[in-house]
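As the next step, I needed to go through one protein, both as residues and as discrete backbone shape codes, included below for the reader:
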Amino acid sequence: MPKDSGNLWLAKALWELGAVQFGDFTLGRTTQNSPIYVNLRLIISDPRALSRAARVMQEEVQTLQAMRHPHVHPFQRICGIPFGGLHLATAFSLRSRVPMVYVHPAKEHNGSRIYVEGLYEAGESVLLVDDLVTSGGGIGQTAAFLRDNAGLHVRDVLVLLDRQEGAKERLRKQGYNLISILGLEPMLNYLMASELIEADQFRRSVEYIQSQRGKLDS
């Protein structure tokens, strides 16, 4: 088994939680007939992994902010994207002591509405936090809602796992900087080298990721 270095501890933790599954998965409009599914929400079942994730996220942000040319802008609020991002944002907020808000869809007697839960002031900058990103569509919608309805600015987005299907490039075109703790391909490489998955599972998953990313260039 290869040395557990860098952020590959996350791949190991997710595997041990049973969060990595292989089959035929269709999740929403962007993930169709995917041979791999990663349920990041299961990380709440391992408090040590959740705590470590918050620490690594904070360290990554601090490192990028401390660079001569900072890769993360200053922010006054953390915003978790429901539902997977809420637990991570809460853990990150507790560790960093940066206040948190989130976009709350609510049903009311006269219909439904969406509002921002938590205290904030218009004009503040927000770091968006989510568990996983595929196409980036949900992130873009959340950022636009915060801007148009609360006067909050989003420039940076932090996710635990990037499926590496082109979200970083799509979000960059919209003016958002995506930071990920781990990519899906490095995770697959780790699991394959650790002999935890079959060669066919590895091959089919990598081919799917690359085909989805290739749509960005077509």
